[in-house]
Amino acid sequence: MADKQGQALTPSKPAPWNDPAVRSIVFQVLAILALGYFFYVIFQNTLANMEKSGISTGFGFLGEPSGFGILMSMVDYTEASSYGRTFLVGLLNTVLVAALGIVLATFLGFAIGVARLSPNWLLAKIATVYVETLRNIPLLLQMFFWYFAVLAALPSPRQSMDWGGAFFLNNRGFYFPRPVFEDGSSIVGIAFVIAVVAVVMLAKWAHKRQESTGEQFHTVYVSIGILLGLPLLAYLISGMPISLEYAALKGFNFQGGMRVIPELMALLWALSFYTAAFIAEIVRAGILAVSHGQSEAAHALGLRQAPTLRLVVIPQALRIIIPPLTSQYLNLTKNSSLATAIGYPDLVAVFMGTTLNQTGQAVEIVGMTMGVYLTISLIISAFMNWYNKRKALVER
Amino acid sequence: MRKSVKFLSALAAVAVVSTAASAGTLDEVKKRGVLHCGVSTGLPGFSNPDDKNNWSGIDADTCRAVAAAVLGDASKIKFTPLTAKERWTALQSSEVDMLSRNSTWTHTRDTSLGVNFTGVNYYDGQGFMVSKSIGVKSAKELDGVSVCLQAGTTTELNLADYFREHGMKYSPITFDTSDQTIKGFEANRCDMLTSDQSQLYSLRTKLPDPNTAMVLPEIISKEPLGPVVSQGDDQWFNIVKWVLNAQINAEELGITSKNVDKMKSSKNPSVGRVLGTVGDAGAKLGLSADWAYNAIKQVGNYGEMFERNVGLNTPLKIARGVNALWNKGGIMYAPPIR
CB of B294 within 8 Å of any CB in chain A? Predict the structure, then answer.
């Protein structure tokens, strides 16, 4: 009986064209082929059309000299550099503002998110007002505000705000002394690296000791001491090989020293203040999602408010926070392309703006620019996914 | 499965659309009944909208003359404001039939963008505007200056060349539109604004107090500005080229929008050839015989366009200078219609 039933339940194998598994594979392969053909046709069509209307194509332009100046560059750049170099300059400027923005927005967002849940009425209300104001005003307007409103309030170079002849603030930027590294300054660098290694080892040792004996160690103060003290000691022993170059007013503007241009400041503030409002809400949601019983249990064990938050609530909240946080990081990076509106020389302004106009090779340049944003976004995504996996609940 | 069939047919439809060829621009414009003209995003004297979206300026009028010649009515026109960055793509993709957007005729643009410059409707040159408060009298004293300028223009290259040639340093602050450059200048972000000199006068009128800024005497480049069409349509290229030439010839022959009807009976055969009473100039362009008559009647000759938009009686107060006719001390010269 049992055997018969078993046989009856196993259907005879259908013909391939009637087999749902085979059919679904065939249709998927067809769909992919059609899609591939579609893009192939678009590509060929574009090339043919561009050739027909006499538009230059190819990537040869990347080697040609650019012939225009760029306001801010982290690598050597002159008017004689190639278009490939302008690409690099723009790329680095974009990465710089995105990286700084992500760090700033994260700290600010966490602080405000926690503040909004604070039992302190004033602090909570200020955080609420911040979030509701900042996230409801379009980002571009905020950029214009920080740029034009703040710029107009700053003095001209000749009436700069001056702090001890070393730091200057005016409407051309914030100037500060530049360290000049002379012979023998590498000792200071090596000392700093040793200090970092020492601090890491110290932290591991202190953690282990606390786990086995329960005794706490003042890791933070000692670390600061090592990080500052060791390089300072090396600096004094090696005969002070690092000097400072001060900015000084020469002609219309300050020369020498280092400078943060107002475009970067405005862009950075706008991006991080705006994104911080969203991150604050994500953090608040994450914390509220952790059961109140967890805090009560921690309090019952004798933990005070701060360690409860740091050791019990935040680690659990992070699991909820990280995925939406990733989206905010991606948003911030992509929003940085609005820089072109206020004259910050990011990738879109320098490469998709000026370079595109000088060469007219829209397809190549827009393609490269899209590729860059896609790559940066995928890298952020991959990193955050890895971090998320590390923080995810490990079920035993 | 129904889904995938739908998907495939959608793909096929897109593929067919993307391979469809475009007909001649003249036929297309006639069929549409409206000329699409690419202009600037707002530059007084050249192409500038008022609060009712009526465009005025010498560039806008250059387009109007083409609309009058092709469609018989200068008002059958749609203006598309374009930033310096967008203009070439808009023209290449046929979003506009012609570009009349204070664009400089250069070798690179003419040879690698797939476009053709049809002529020159304004001879310009790049200049500098500085705030009077910095006390500079000549461009040679500008070492270390901060400069506001517009992205995607020949200005960026000329500026770099000039400062390199004179061994001076500068830092460029590049904005998207000319409006933003004047805002940056007003906010004192830069000491100097650079652009074509005509634009400097025009932008200066946007300052709260135009007298706080002055235009330096130096001109550092040649900027012949003119209308542009896409490559590959010679008939359309000829039309746009010869409408402007007809307007310049009209000024030379003394034909104006006011006397054009009287001039139709002129005994001068040159006048007759322009106005279509002698010869078949219109037919050779694929237009009606009264093509130039319409353009002159409705828009005016070149001199009228100039005086109305940028001349001495406008806020810009620009003298004819090099833009005067060749026989009146300038270099404005059009080949004859014959």
Answer: no
Average pLDDT for A138-155: 88
pLDDT band for position A157 (50/70/90)? Answer: confident
Residue A7: pLDDT over 80 = no
Check pLDDT > 50 for residue A261. yes
* B276-299 as b/e: b if 16+ CB within 10 A: bbbeebbeebbbeebbbbbbbbbb
Q: Report chain A's mean pLDDT, rounded to a whole number.
A: 87
Do the domains spanning B23-123+224-328 and B126-221 agree at the CATH topology level? yes
Domain segments of chain B: what residues?
23-123+224-328, 126-221
B47 reaches A (C-beta below 8 A): no
CA-based nearest residue to B217, from B149, B328, B319, B140:
B140
Of B18, B89, B160, the CB nearest to A45: B18
Start-to-end CA distance of chain A, whole Å, equals 44
The encoded tokens of residue B42 equal 């707002």
DSSP A350: I
pLDDT for the residue B10: 46
Architecture, CATH, for domain A83-177+246-391 = Orthogonal Bundle (1.10)
The string of pLDDT tens digits covering residues A39-66 is 999 988 888 887 877 777 888 888 888 8
Looking at chain B, which residue has its C-alpha nearest residue A57? B112
Class for the domain spanning B23-123+224-328: alpha beta
B161 touches chain A (CB under 8 A): yes
Q: Which CATH architecture has domain B126-221?
A: 3-Layer(aba) Sandwich (3.40)
Q: Using the beta-carbon criterion (under 8 Å), do B171 and A251 form an inter-chain contact?
A: no
Task: Using an 8 Å CB-CB cutoff, list chain B residues near A69.
Answer: 156, 159-160, 163, 170-172
